[in-house]
Amino acid sequence: MQPIPAAVGAHSFPAIERVHFGRPAAEAIVTEAERAGARRVFIMASRTLNTTTDVVRGIAAALGERHAGTFDGMPQHTTRRGVARAAQAAQEVGADLVVAVGGGSVIDGAKMVTLCLRHGFTDEHLQGLDAFETKLSPEGRIVRPSFEGPQVRMVAVPSTLNGGEFNAGCLVTDERHHHKQTFFHAHMMPRMVVLDPALTVHTPAHLWLGSATRALDHAIEALLSISPTPLSDTVVLEGIRRMAALLPQWQADPGNLELRAACQIASWLCSYGLSSRSVFGGVMMGPSHAIGHVLGGTCGVPHYFCTPVLMPAVLRWSAPSTAERQRLLAEALGRPGVPAGDAFADLVAQLGLPGNLRAVGVQAEQFDNIARISMGEIFTRGNARRITEPADVLEILQLAA
């Protein structure tokens, strides 16, 4: 593979201390609690894992007297009300370490709980968070508020493959406006991530596969970013190569823990650019993230279906400015010589995931509103082919229709 010419830039390393892979989650969490001197460990878990499996009970039992409480009420898309309820529960038990067990909504919720604990926010709508949102100014510049970050840190134990745990930022839905907001602080990054394949056997197949495309999204948008780095390029291409090869194997043998573990490692590699990205520099995500946030927060599309329906269109729209990188992407997807948009669409079809906006209930009459709201998303500006006006977003939506 020919190296990609390196532009001038910077690679920012995240405030994550370690990743445990292939190790039982309960064992790794107890070790981390002991290392951190934590005495009041607060578990945030998906309701399904907490009520239909013994995963969460096993972690609580392993923690013993260190276990301070469990919360399992975080809604999909991580709502402000859900975060407020969790923050109040964590505050009441005096949490000194938060452990998130589940998918992206739970992990994002835990990041926000650590921030709310730092600032004492527990009111229903978390009004104080309004001053902390990362957003665009009317002139299109990123507004980066400065505030004190979490003192209570978190551990992430993902049950899906999306890779959002390797990120110091997160998304929260403000239900009052049906809009997702971005928040970032270096210490919202998990202190530790635990990749335990045994925990993932409870994850439904459509969620496992859909979340895998989210990991691929993180990798592809890093590759097509306005601010790639040589390190992230190399790692995410390897992540794409592994994930594209592994998913069909997993479909044929979903009970295979070795394949599940290999998929988790692929997700980690795919998310390497995401972990470098920060609002102060690093690898910037792009329009699939920006438009996907609107599809989720405003249109109610499940997060794990946004990439399958958007990414082929984003690739086709971006092709004039990213031809060489898309050539390398197609090779990593196992389809050399095929346009990358077509290669990704073929993978989506092979995985049995929805392949267009109609399939997830988004109609053409919604496009103008989606385009308008998307222009307020910071990641609209992240692609090497720049989005400059709502008409550009409309072109992508029409390609994805």
From TrEMBL:
Domain Fe-containing alcohol dehydrogenase-like C-terminal: 215-398
One Pfam family linked to the record: ADH_Fe_C
Record keywords, A-Z: Oxidoreductase
Residue ranges constituting the Alcohol dehydrogenase iron-type/glycerol dehydrogenase GldA domain according to the UniProt record: 18-197
Superkingdom in the source lineage: Bacteria
GO molecular function: alcohol dehydrogenase (NAD+) activity; metal ion binding
Keyword Oxidoreductase set for record: yes
Protein family: Belongs to the iron-containing alcohol dehydrogenase family.
Protein name as annotated: Alcohol dehydrogenase class IV
Species: Pseudorhodoferax soli
